[in-house]
Structures are given as structure tokens and as C-alpha cells.
Write a structure and sequence with these properties.
Bound molecules: 1,4-dihydronicotinamide adenine dinucleotide
CATH topology: Rossmann fold
CATH superfamily: NAD(P)-binding Rossmann-like Domain
CATH class: Alpha Beta
Radius of gyration: 17 Å
Number of helices: 12
Oligomer: single chain
Number of strands: 7
């Protein structure tokens, strides 16, 4: 049985992944801002360093896999673009960089990063913010959202998810990851009914946008079904899966861009 680190473990899809891994007999080191083995605020560099170190201590320097599910949705708020940037982007890349050697130590580790179908369906996300994030420059990314005023959290969300997906794909084929047996992949959910989405649905403006968004299958996704895909991507089925992005969104991405492949 393996040892896995899961961020965003206290709620939604992260919690559903944790439950499935424990039911399958694995050991899980949970990471969240509250109610976790490792309590850490991933919106600060110090919190991320602390989380990385405490997980390494708890796993004895060997990880069979990791799931990076901690994230914030694009709800309104002045400080929201910064928080989204710090948690959704740096909360993934800083932890994975800190855990790379522990993942390499098992020789066959699997990692699933939470992307989003906003990476392919959200218009106008500024490319210069994505480039800034990939350069590790949060302040430059934040400046790119200023002209969007009230839409800044939405743009920050879209950019964080595109950038984290590009980061994952770039690293997935680098020898120090792929030759060390580490399989980096991402899941890109559509609208899934978790506390994150419930919060958005409770805000009238956001609820309107979400309800008018095309979902050919109808309704919202279920956290448990998404977790089933993640757990599959942590198993031997992913031995030959490198840098893939699995879209599970009820058909929204296909609706917008069926031939764009
Ligand atoms: P959720 O809100 O149920 O869970 C997110 C978890 O992240 C929470 O436990 C929260 O405490 C944790 N978190 C937030 N800020 C943190 C911080 N500063 N430090 C440590 N932990 C922090 O959300 P959900 O829906 O389960 O989302 C999981 C992932 O899936 C996120 O990355 C989200 O962006 C992504 N996603 C969600 C979609 C949805 O419709 N629910 C759609 C597409 C992507």
C-alpha cells in the first residue's frame, strides 16, 4: 500500500480522493488550512515551505503519489486575485518542487494536479499573466489583471489554471521527473457541486454566469465521480500517461470546441 499527500483534503474533491485512498488501504497525509494532518496556509510562501517540510517528515522522504487539489474559485473580492494566484498556482508548483525527490525515491510515483476546463473555455485570459506565473513572478501577473476591474478574480483563476497546467506539462517530460518514474498529469473538471461551487451559486451575478454556461450532460458533476478518475490516475493505469489533461466536464469543452483538437 502506498503513501500519498493530498492538498485541499478537507473539502470537496480533495476530501473525496482522501476517502477513496483510505478505503483502498493507503496511508494519506492530508494538507489543508484547517482539519488536516498538516495545517498550512498555502497562500503564503512560508506556509508552503512549512507544508512541504512537514509532509516530507511525515512520509520519511518517500511518496508514492500526490494530489494537488487545494484551490480557490473566482469569487469577488479585492484580495482575491492574489489569493487565487498564491494557492492555485504557487500552492501546486512550490509543493511539487519540494516533494520531487521524495516522489523520485519510490521510482514509480503518480501525481495529479487539479486544473479546470476554464483552461479551454474561458475567453480573454491574459497571456502575459500566464507567462509571468511561469516565470515565478506573482506581482507581474497581478498587474495584468488590473484592467479587468471586477473580472480580475475570474482572470486570475483562468490564468492560474492555464499556468499550472503548462507548468505540469513542461515538467512532466523533463528527465528529472519522467526518468525518475514520476508521472505528472492533470484533471480538468467542469462545474462540480462542491463548497467552492456552492459559494459561487450563492452569489447572484456568479450564479447567473454558471447557470448559463453550457453543460450538455446537464446539471453539475459529483465530487466522488471526479475522485474516481483521480484515483485511477494514481494507479498502474497511468504508467504510460505523461503530461495528460483529463477533462471531465459534462461536455462543456466539446460543446465550445469540438473540432479544436
Ligand atoms: P473546495 O472549496 O471544496 O475545496 C478546496 C480546498 O482547498 C478546501 O478544503 C480549502 O480549505 C483548501 N484551501 C483553500 N485555500 C487554502 C489555503 N490558503 N491553504 C490551504 N488550503 C486551502 O473546492 P473543490 O471544488 O473541491 O476544488 C478542488 C480543486 O478543483 C480546486 O483546485 C478547484 O480550483 C478545482 N476545480 C473545481 C471546480 C468546481 O466546479 N468545483 C471546477 C474546476 C476546477
Amino acid at each position: 500500500m502506498g503513501v500519498y499527500a493530498v492538498t485541499g483534503s478537507a473539502s470537496g474533491m480533495g476530501a473525496a480522493v482522501v476517502q477513496r485512498l483510505i478505503d483502498a488501504g493507503h496511508r494519506v497525509i492530508t494538507v489543508d488550512i484547517a482539519q488536516a494532518d498538516v495545517v498550512a496556509d498555502l497562500s503564503t510562501a512560508g506556509g508552503r515551505r512549512d507544508a512541504a517540510e512537514k509532509v516530507l517528515a511525515a512520509c520519511g522522504g518517500r511518496l508514492d503519489g500526490a494530489v494537488l487539489a487545494a484551490g480557490l474559485g473566482p469569487s469577488p473580492g479585492r484580495d482575491r486575485p492574489r489569493l487565487i494566484t498564491q494557492v492555485n498556482y504557487f500552492g501546486v508548483v512550490d509543493l511539487l518542487e519540494g516533494w520531487r525527490e521524495a516522489l523520485a525515491a519510490t521510482g514509480n510515483a503518480k501525481v495529479v494536479v487539479f486544473s479546470s476546463n476554464s483552461t479551454t473555455t474561458m475567453p480573454m485570459v491574459p497571456n502575459r499573466a500566464i507567462a509571468a506565473l511561469l516565470d515565478g513572478d506573482a506581482e507581474r501577473a497581478l498587474r495584468a489583471y488590473r484592467p479587468f476591474a471586477k473580472m480580475a478574480p475570474t482572470m486570475a483563476y483562468g490564468a492560474s489554471k492555464v499556468a499550472v497546467t503548462h507548468w505540469m506539462r513542461r515538467r512532466s517530460v523533463e528527465p528529472e521527473w519522467v526518468r525518475a518514474g514520476i508521472r505528472l498529469n492533470a484533471i480538468a473538471p467542469g462545474a462540480v457541486l462542491t463548497p467552492l461551487l456552492e459559494k459561487q451559486l450563492a452569489t447572484p451575478g456568479e450564479a447567473r454566469a454558471i447557470k448559463s454556461f453550457p453543460v450538455p450532460a446537464g446539471g453539475y458533476g459529483d465530487a466522488g465521480l471526479l475522485a474516481d478518475w483521480v484515483v485511477h490516475m494514481l494507479g498502474p493505469a497511468a504508467d504510460f500517461m505523461v503530461g495528460s489533461v483529463v477533462i471531465v466536464d459534462g461536455g462543456s469543452d466539446a460543446w465550445f470546441r469540438a473540432d479544436d483538437w
